[in-house]
Design goal:
With 125 residues, this protein is α+β, with helices and mostly antiparallel strands. The protein has one domain (3-14, 37-112). The protein has helices spanning 3-6, 38-43, 46-50, 59-80, 85-110, and strands spanning 17-23, 26-32, 114-115. Strand 1 (17-23) and strand 2 form a beta hairpin. The chain is elongated and about 55 Å long. 22% of the residues are buried. Keywords: Membrane, Transmembrane, Transmembrane helix.
Length: 125
């Protein structure tokens, strides 16, 4: 797990990205929408477990590591500021929803995927 990915809110992926990788003599293509992910907001890391779209090596383990760290930060802040649990929970889920696709993009890059030169990044599709 790379902690620089966890706190990289300024390096979020912008625009829809298409990544490709050659596996067993065929090209595998993945689409990263790079928007706020409402299902990740609601279900956090469990969305990646039950969704086929986000299946890639190492991504689920990374998400649960990130979730564990965010929960520990949440617990620490809740201990320091008594009665503010609801605030930290909302902030944590918004953060998870906004960073989910960026974490997916970074994991695809680590797994050997490269940006498709035939598909430039698009803001709206």
């Amino acid at each position: 797990m790379d902690l620089s990915d966890l706190f990289a809110i300024n390096r979020r992926v912008r625009g829809t990205r298409y990544l490709v990788k050659q596996v067993d003599q065929r090209m595998v293509s993945k689409r990263v929408p790079a928007k706020f992910n409402w299902l990740a907001f609601i279900f956090t890391a469990f969305y990646a477990v039950f969704s086929r779209q986000y299946r890639t090596r190492g991504f689920i383990a990374k998400l649960f590591g990130d979730l564990l760290l965010l929960v520990l930060i949440n617990c620490g802040l809740s201990y320091l500021f008594e009665g503010s649990d609801w605030l930290w929970n909302i902030i944590e889920t918004f953060y998870f929803g906004s960073m989910f696709d960026t974490w997916y993009y970074n994991q695809l890059r680590k797994n050997g995927y490269r940006e498709d030169p035939n598909h430039p990044p698009a803001d709206f599709e």
